[in-house]
Protein 1
Amino acid sequence: MEIAIVGAGAAAVGLLDALAATTAGNPGGPGTTGTPGTPGTSGTSGTSGSITVFEPSPHLWRGRPYGPDLDTVLVNAPPAIMSIRYQDFGHYEAWLGTRGAAHLDPALGQPLVPRALYGEYLEHTAEAAMATLRAGGWRVRVVTQRVTGAARSGDRLSLQTEDGRAHDADHVALCVGGGTPQDPYGLDGTPGFVGDPYPLARTLGQVPPGSDVAVIGSGLTAVDVVVSLAARGHTGQITLLSRSGVLPHVWQRPVGHRPQQVTAERVGALHRKHGVVTLEDLIGLLRAELAEAGEDFDGFVAELLATETEDPARRLRAQLAAVDDSRIGRRVLQETAHAVGPYAWRLLPEPDRLRLRRHFRLATSVASPMVPVNAAVMMRLLDSGQLVLAPGVRKIEAANGQFRVQGDDGERTPDVVVNAMNPPPRAIPRAAGQLATALLSDGAADLHPSGGLLPADPRLHVVGDLAGGGPFITSSILGIAAQASRAAQAIVTAPDAARAT
Ligand SMILES: Cc1cc2nc3c(=O)[nH]c(=O)nc-3n(C[C@H](O)[C@H](O)[C@H](O)COP(=O)(O)OP(=O)(O)OC[C@H]3O[C@@H](n4cnc5c(N)ncnc54)[C@H](O)[C@@H]3O)c2cc1C
């Protein structure tokens, strides 16, 4: 069997790791930390062939977020949910070992390492998986080329790389990520405009320390920009420009609670019983989870909904004070949004999905919180007045060497504008545009009505944010590991796996 993996970021690492687990016939995968209940993909001992990974970037296995950058660019989540091995919650923590101690977030009591260090973990995991696969008889290689085309040819898929070469495969997994920011205000090429902030080590070098900086967006990337500017000793004004003005929530200290009601098993059981799962069903599960813990569901919901109207600085202060609050509500929502959400989302009727989409900013803010160490810097800058939030931004334009920003509170004229808006989930990344067009015109894939690609051929697989029909929030490592495990399962149990060489 020949497998082609397009892209070498976290999704590709999760897929290689899950494939390696199958060859070793080892249910926990190579080097498992032995977390109880770790399921492996079934049944490929004896299967072998070749795996070719295509990636043009020199920073293999790190994808967009985890390449070399400033030490202030941190992972956004605690170790238990940063494991790229599906359901082995200790895999990343075991790799990190004593190195974690140097990166403890004092409020969270958890190590939050620079993203570049997390990239080393991905690199290590990919290399270990490739070694296991090779020991199991697989040929594994990396082609440092972008894939630009694809077509079905007989019972195989043929990929084309930028150098014009063709590469045939029995299975193709698209692991191309979400891509770089769009340019909604048409500012690309304007002096003083930073279209893609990463790596911040390079882009912030162009920002004069005393300049008036406007950051488009108020999500996690905007937080990265602000915190890194502060660490570089920026003295000028920093303004977060956003339509909603909503900041990410703040992580709370883990309390070791495992959801008992909001689980994939319960959602599956509801689906089997009623043939459908509604938003009310999911709310019912959360209500039951909170009731078991003796917590007030209605109060919790009211508190969440206030995100859309309450002053963001006041909320930030309250959330910093609540890092140690032992109530489980937010913790359950944060974990299950990524662990159960993608599965439940596909079962929801469209009107219920629409209802959730209307709360996109709130959902993203809760599901992808900022780490307390960054929240503390944001609070300090807001308190000193160096950082301000400007909601209700309507227009940003460049004229006569100056930026002009029109918003609810009038006009601003920043010296530098940094784009910190990531593409929405299901956007087709520019680097994979030609490939996606080729797959669509060949009929190997369809466009999902809500964006993203749906394989129309059992030999095509999509892992990551490009997967059509996926949830409306960006995938986390937890969600990507689950998708990668499912894709590995589909590949190794496909009918052609039986006749593998
Ligand atoms: C800035 C940022 C920070 C994040 N931080 C966290 C975090 O701390 N915790 C967390 O849980 N989640 C985080 N996420 C979400 C998620 O973990 C990441 O988005 C994750 O890295 C996605 O992995 P991926 O492999 O799907 O995509 P990517 O990491 O984007 O990798 C895709 C790869 O595909 C390659 N590619 C694209 N097109 C082609 C082509 N045509 N041919 C060949 N190769 C191609 C690209 O060069 C790239 O290397 C973050 C996301 C972003 C954007």
Note: The two ends are 6 Å apart (CA to CA).
Protein 2
Amino acid sequence: MTEVINEDGTSRRSFIATGTAAVALTAAGVGLAGAPLAEGETLPLTPQCTDGDDTPPVIEGPYFRRNSPLRTNLRTTGVSGVLLSLTGFVYDIRCRPLANVLLDFWQADQRGQYDNNTAAYRMRGHQFTDAQGRYTLETIVPKDYPGRTPHIHVKVQAPRGPVLTTQLYFPDDTRAYGMNVAALNRRDAYYVRDTVIKLGPLTGNRYQGTFDFVVRTA
Ligand SMILES: [Fe+2]
């Protein structure tokens, strides 16, 4: 199992728990470098995925915690704010969708605060892409905090692949909590346009967003 363990141990529990599934997927030829897609996995490629152009890393920052809960909905008790439904695919660098990819999300809440020490692991959760390579995250738009524009942290790891640690950002015209996201993006030293979420219009109190990851598999 050593090849799938992140340097800080992040993925140890998750991949041990799904080891059988990972082996089964390997046998089926899904999701590993050089392996052809299984029959029925011929999803159309998306414009976001360009051959050889993987998602850039962004610093981890100080607030990552190991062993986040397995969940796709981060809107737990006490969480309120502008709702965000985020979906997308994870592709390899040849734009093939990848099943069983670990995504571990963490973010600030509607006040710009992280849960760094409670058992609730608020605004933190990991999940795996489905057989079509898709993930879905139900969350809120995080508020900015001193020195940082609003962002969602994530670690992404294909089976046996390296860990991609990055951050997702918001378009300049995002409306939430009275933030001036354009100015915040401009001032943030870690902001990169390559990892900005594509947001639909604000409908009521909810945004729908998409972001596709492109990761290395070996
Ligand atoms: Fe952060």
Note: The longest strand covers residues 83-92.
